[in-house]
Amino acid sequence: MSRHFSLLISCLVTGQLIGLTSLIHLFYVYVSPVQAQTSQSSSAVADQIYDLAEAEDLKRNYERALALYRQALQLYQQQGQTRRATSCLYAIGSVQYHQGFYEKSLQTHQEALQIARSINFTSAEWRVLTLMGLSYTELGQFSRAFSLQQQALSVVRGLADPDGEQSVLNNIAMLHNYLGQYEQAITVFGQVVEIIQANFSASQDQAYLLYSKGVALHNIGLAYERMQQYEKAIESYQQALTVKRQANDRESEAITLSGLGYSYYKAGITENAFTYLRQALTIFQELNDQDGLSYTLYSIGEVQASTGQFSEAWGSYQKALTIAQETKNLIDQRIILSNIGDLFAQQNQPQLAILFYKRSVNITEQIRRDIQGLPIDQQQSYTNTIADTYRKLADLLLKENRILEAQQVLDLLKVQEIQDYLRRGVRSSEQTAQGVDMLSAEQQISAQYDELIQGAIDSGKALDELEAIAPENRTLEQQQRVVELRRRQGQINAAFRDFLDQPEVVAAIAALEVQIDQEIDLSAIRAIRSNIQQDAVLLYPLVLDDRLELVVLSPHTPPMHYRVPVGRVELNRAISDYLTDLRNPNSNPEPNAQRLYQWLIKPIEEILAQGNTKTIIYAPDGQLRYIPLAALHDGNQWIAERFQVNYVTAVSLFHLNSQPRTQPRVLAGAFSEGRYNIQRGGTFLPFSGLPFAKPEVETIARLYPNTRQLIDRAFTRAATEPILNDYNIVHLATHAMFTTGSPEDSFILFGDGSTITMRDVSSLDLDNVDLVVLSSCQTAVSTMQLTDGKEILGFGYQIQETGARAAIASLWAVDDGGTEALMSRFYTALQSGNLSKTAALQQAQIALIQGATLTPLAHLDNPENQPTTLEHPYYWASFILIGNGL
After folding, report:
1. How many CB atoms lie within 10 A of CB 480?
2. pLDDT digits (tens, 9 = 90+) for 216-233
3. Helix ranges, 657-789 (H)
4. Is the pLDDT of residue 859 over 90?
5. N- or C-end of the chain: fewer Cβ atoms within 10 A?
């Protein structure tokens, strides 16, 4: 079950803002111009204006604060008081940061940084650097954020400023948290605690340090919780609770109590879970903290559901959802509705579970469209467990044989996974913009439910207003209204409890069974079929814990699904085994290739035969993204010899109809000589030139005489980027790396050592480009570690975002010479003009399977000078085509 977003946010926001709060606190103490004495009246006026700005800033009256800060800045600049002007610039940038204007904040702080460095104002320099790092964090540019925080740490350590050091370390730890690097986060948070303890007795602000220490200990607990090390999480939360109680911070205490309760629940100690969650609930009630009440109530509901107290859990969820809807907290609503879906699934009521899962998914889609407006900590918490709801909904729909609805959910799931990886908004298509369709009976049940919720909200508001009046001061009419509203609340609570027994709801549930068959959206079927060629099928695997589901859409048959009895663990083990074979040209790959064929293709062979299928449009799930479908084997031949394979991220994001052929105009770049060390994530990665890259580009130029060639030092980002959209085929024979952790660290290398990140790639305008080929030693995946393949989804989507219609990239570190052999045959096949991109790639693969050889380059001859045979899939299978290859 998912955990409430707001609880995580409270911890993360507090954890992040401790750095920012301490910066402002320390800046005012040590840098603020109001601390300096001056005899000049104009300086006194500026100081007074600054004081007023600071007061408005602390009250969050940001527009007023900005106006005053700018007045003070102008006066300080006129007086030549550079240090004070720097302080003002810092304050202006911090307000812009709080407003969410991160680009503006960076511009302001860049100006402040230049001045601070020019006058050796180091106490301002580190503060500006660390707040710039926070802005880059919010923008999802984590490499830059890390770099700036490390610079700030180096500067502040040179000042022997322990308060500043723990502030910067806290921000670095939060960066690790955002990226899921929990062990590193724990280490750095531990350093924060050590610094606080070492300097506590000498500090003039011990209350602040207690608060800081409590937050750091809490965040250690949160990291352990996310690592599912609940005993350690409990230990850290207990330490945090002790410190927070010493600091007498009730809100922060309630947050940690809630964390404790959740960890005890996950550890299976439900009695303690109830104890701490109810303590948190009491404090949030005292503070009238509506978000705190909402997430604590539904956390209690989770514990109740886990112990079989279904009616009690139902009641807790209703109260939580009423608060969330009243406060318009969509993220809480999403989680609570998903938990209600879990509740009905546990009670074997799949149709109602589907209804509430659908509502949760549709709210998720609503949030997703606006996620770029969320702070990064909220984005990270928001995406933490979303995919679980999509998978549970698709699972139930398939069990109920509701295949088209399941396919729609699977498409939404893939879009969501892209967003999880990119950590930014992903645009909706016409198919995904409205979420998942609700049947009319589902809409009727939802309307009944919402009417109850709204009634509870309305009566609750009215009662709160009247109860705010002391009983002795109420009029007789007001007192009668209080009694009436309390009676109404009791009726609403009873209606919630008996909701499923209401005649209208009973009738609607019964109608669901009929409508599932009657309300198949024929237009949706037509839309899918119109997007698939007559000789193509669409294959959607869904990897579940206990089985593999294959969803198949074909122009000739109704939507079908096949259940394969292989669980996630066994499937992933087979994928790992086969990848070991694929990456070793001396292995025997066929046994593992046939094993995966039995699971993925054998069940759908009849559909493939009926439609005389030539192309499989493939949208893989999870670790299946690491295995090229073309490299499965039926016992007689490879899939590549039977079918063209066209990968898609999500069908709803592509138009898969055939494209008119155009005269190829090729831009080909090659990195063949040289060696560069590229810094990413604090480490240097060595890359050497690819000897076969130049012959590869020269071969393309022979086939297409008008090819523009950029070789080695001529192949620079500055020379390449402006002309990309002048060509319809862009071929880059160079290194690229698309990481599993952060797209900010994913890049393409040019021949002069310059790079372009994938974030920058997605902002290019390539709407004239039909095909981007990244022909290199390794492109779509940069690590041997298998995760969930989101980096492959992310790469495909970001190329698509440029306007380019398709891309070719590799799934593992490929052989340089084998790549040249494959690409020369691919472009030869494409040159004929009557083959699609997928067909040309298939022809190139078949050529290598059927006996193509590689003779080493003259300057790289092996002693025997023997040609290398290329029939092993290591040489021909790694390259996949993503997008519209038809």
Report:
1. 11
2. 999 999 999 989 999 999
3. 693-703, 717-720, 758-761
4. no
5. N
